[in-house]
Amino acid sequence: MKARIDAIIQRDQAEYLEQLMPQTDPLLRELEEYGAQHGVPSADREVALFVEITARAIKAKRALEIGMAIGYTSIHLARAVGDDGLVVTIDPSDEMIKAADGYMKRAGLRDRVRIERGKALDVIPRLKETFDLLFIDALKEEYADYLKLALPKLRGGGVVIVDNLLWGGQVAGEIRSADQESSTNALREFNKYFVNHPKLRAEILSVGDGLGYAVKVS
Ligand SMILES: C[S@@+](CC[C@H](N)C(=O)[O-])C[C@H]1O[C@@H](n2cnc3c(N)ncnc32)[C@H](O)[C@@H]1O
What we know:
20% strand
């Protein structure tokens, strides 16, 4: 164990890093505000940027996102894959799809994104593509099944990113309410499965709400 394990990520460090983050462009700022006003769960800004940086670094051309909401991280991915790239993103909610469609069109990125309407466990098996990057951000109880279904569709050397693995502190601490019990317990199990997965080199970073980060090694 590191000698000063609690020396870094404390409130003042987190606030410092947050104010240092570059402002997003007006459209993403509007999307963030819409999300905040309507209670739409979007990834933290540093998570969306991390996903985009990774996609650019590995020159991803095909990305699969599980859980789109109003398209905040989809837009980051769509920017990264370039003109000839494709983001396939899955969400069952018509309301989310309508809003995301509008933001993607306004961003000029709609033709890089294929929205699959439906539940991920039904949609993933019928996807034909091989992906360079997989981003998981939907139902916590289903994370392990998403990974099982999607991993065969990820190329060797492809990257897996998984959001919310610390779940607001509950995974390593106390569960705050009864309705968080099943998701928290599922994430506790998922985290062990993820970091020990024989086809992955994986770790969990204290970025955002806890970010799983892995490369497919076999
Ligand atoms: C945390 S949000 C996704 C946020 C998005 N990745 C972002 O950062 O902008 C989770 C989304 O998963 C969707 N969802 C719920 N059940 C799902 C399922 N079975 N399969 C796929 N998506 C699902 C919800 O409608 C919601 O929009």
